[in-house]
Design goal:
This protein has 273 residues and is of the alpha+beta class. It contains 4 helices and 13 strands.
Length: 273
């Protein structure tokens, strides 16, 4: 005596398998292949001694002789293997009366030894980061209005909640810090790149917040997963720290490891005008 298959259950099973197969392809294309491509690109650099890598200026900062106040935000591929996946970000600035630039950022190894990882130092604002040329993300120039923004940045740095805690993944790290600063200066309209792992780690255990540009909103579960929607950022989805998304203006696709594919998003604002 033969038994006939349960056709509704059979059809449901086939549909489920097709759905899972398509989902696996999407995950492979969006999350795995970009990481592999970037890793292959970075392999040729990994055998270099870190002390031989470039640290000199990339000639992107305005001349120090200017009496104009300047704020710039940079991102550069992180050192060694970490550069396969993400970037390190920092802020450089000078007041109208300053004779040198200052650079403010989080340096992880200070936290590893129990020290304050928030570093403010004079010197090169736009230097190569372990041989990697930095990308300018934002620039603000002007007079006393920009001086006041710098004061806000320094105050926000003093109040950063994780000065002695650093985790490469999922945060808090240098990108968590720059996202924290950006929220104190909404004039930057800062959109951090998808490779800024840690930008979605929300401080103080929050699961919802304004985006760093303060022109959108995001939900994040400890930096491990989340979604973001903003005027500057477009739409982003974070899975285990890997970000995929679409920026509507300037148009671009955002992929893990590879970063932004499309039009550049550098913005310059002159408060003298």
């Amino acid at each position: 005596m033969s038994s006939k298959p349960n056709r509704p259950a059979y059809r449901l099973g086939r549909r489920l398998l097709r759905y899972l197969g398509k989902s696996a392809v999407i995950v492979l294309v969006l999350f795995v292949l970009p990481v592999g491509c970037q890793y292959a690109k970075q392999l040729q650099r990994d055998d270099a001694n870190w002390w031989d890598l470039r640290r000199d200026s990339s000639d992107q900062a305005p001349p120090i002789s200017s009496d104009t106040a300047v704020i710039q935000v940079y991102a550069a591929r992180a050192a060694r293997w970490r550069g396969n996946l993400g970037v390190h970000t920092w802020v450089a600035y000078k007041r109208t009366s300053d004779l040198t630039y200052r650079r403010i950022e989080v340096i992880g190894y200070y936290a590893y030894y129990g020290n304050n990882s928030v570093r403010v130092r004079k010197g090169n604002p736009d230097g190569y980061w372990f041989g990697n040329r930095p990308t300018l993300l934002r620039e603000i120039t002007g007079g006393t209005d920009v001086d006041e923004m710098i004061t806000r940045i320094e105050k926000a740095a003093e109040n950063y909640p994780y000065p002695r805690t650093y985790r490469v993944w999922p945060g808090p790290n240098s990108n968590t810090f720059i996202a924290w600063l950006a929220r104190s200066v909404p004039e930057l309209n800062l959109e951090l790149p998808p490779t800024a792992i840690g930008k979605d780690y929300l401080p103080n255990g929050s699961i919802a917040a304004l985006t760093p540009s303060r022109r959108g909103a995001q939900i994040s579960l400890g930096g491990y997963a989340g979604v973001l929607l903003g005027v500057e950022e477009g739409i982003e989805m974070n899975v285990l720290g890997a970000t995929v998304g679409v920026d509507f203006w300037p148009p671009a696709i955002k992929l893990p490891a590879l970063g932004r594919l499309g039009f550049d998003d550098v913005r310059r604002y002159d408060f003298n005008e």
